[in-house]
Amino acid sequence: MTAINSETDPVSMLECMMLIRAYEEQMAALQAAGSAAGTCTSVGQEASAVGVVRALGNADRILTNHRSAGHLLARGADPGRLMAEVMGRSDGYCKGKSGSLHISARELGVVLTSTIVGGELALATGVALSMQMLGEDGIVACFFGDGAACEGIFHESLNLASVWRLPVLYVCENNQWQAFVHRKETMAGDHVSEWARGYGIAARTVDGNDAEAVRIAASEAVATIRRTGEPFLLETYTYRLRGHFEPDDQSYVDRDELAAWRLRDPLATLRRRLIANGGVDARELDRMEHRVKETIASALAFAQASPYPALSELTTDVYA
Ligand SMILES: Cc1ncc(C[n+]2csc(CCOP(=O)(O)OP(=O)(O)O)c2C)c(N)n1
Ligand SMILES: [Mg+2]
Question: How many angstroms separate the CA atoms of 32 and 230, rounded?
């Protein structure tokens, strides 16, 4: 049984960010070699995932989108079972039936991954309504992109969540890209958080590349939701450092913009701060990174050894 991870000390958060980075790079390498299905990696967005997810409690639910591996790993997902899922193997979280785009993990409170851009917004709002009607504890965290925020469903969902006073933490990961289109070509203004205020929803933008700043902002947002029972929108302003999916040569990306954001890499930022504050030795962090890479190597061996589902599984756990 996978345990929910709620560690919030910065070293533990950095270790998880290293795990996410190593996982995503491993999946990209497998994809490039033609031995795994294409995935949308969250490289560059690790601080947003870890900072928000670690601010949640055990009873809280998560709905996420196509860029979900960071959210799952931050919550405590087993990297071997996650890889097995993406590779269509029977030991995956959904017995290999969901791949990376529809994954759910009941034991982690991850209700659904929506590959329909914006679908998670309506579904998370519905999950919060059901929790409210059933009198269940907990709030719902909903991860979506700046592209989803430009769809009508964002506005419909926020409007109803405000009117019905639903306990949802809407987390917009504003990574500047909407597939192969830059955000500036489709979005009025720079900040999705400004739109929430029109629906009477409290909102805030935080530096999405600073894990500690995200964790503090998310904890405050979660506390506000628990106190008021009302929704909150947190925008993590960040950058997608790899392509939309794998492989993607990023030939359409402005080189200077990419280089500027690379200098603000969330892992390097937290690592530098931990060393400068004197609490952690650089060699210890190197050893941590080495251990994380070993974890990913064993996860891959586990996933590759896992069998494909039996033919009889074709009609189980699905609606017919
Ligand atoms: C309704 C719908 N329209 C289009 C797509 C194709 N598509 C998949 S991801 C994506 C970009 C989404 O951008 P954003 O919401 O900013 O998320 P990001 O990929 O940047 O994390 C698009 C257009 C889709 N899956 N669903
Ligand atoms: Mg985006």
Answer: 44
> 10-309, what's its fold?
Rossmann fold (3.40.50)
The dihedral built from the CA positions of residue 94, 99, 105 and 108, taken in this order, carries a sign that is positive
CA 310 / ligand 1 centre spacing (Å): 32
Distant-in-sequence, close-in-space partners of 144: CB < 8 Å, separation ≥ 6: 65, 117, 118, 120, 121, 154, 170, 171, 172, 173
pLDDT, tens digit, 9 for 90 and up, residues 283-316: 999 999 999 999 999 999 999 999 999 999 989 9
| pLDDT tens digit sequence for 156-182 | 999 999 999 999 999 999 999 999 999
The answer to whether 66 and 40 are in contact (CB under 8 A) is: yes
Query: Is the bond preceding 247 in cis, omega lying within 30 degrees of 0?
Result: yes
Would you say residue 320 has pLDDT above 70?
A: no
The minimum-distance atom of ligand 1 relative to the CA of 175 is: 20
How confident is residue 279, by pLDDT bands cut at 50, 70 and 90? confident
Q: How far is the CA of 288 from the centre of ligand 1 (A)?
A: 34
Every domain of the chain and the residues it spans = 10-309
CA angle in degrees (0–180, nearest 5) for 292-143-172: 110
Task: Give tens-digit pLDDT for 106-141.
Answer: 999 999 999 999 999 999 999 999 999 999 999 999
Nearest bound ligand to CA 49? 1
Alpha-carbon gap, residue 90 to 71, rounded angstroms: 22
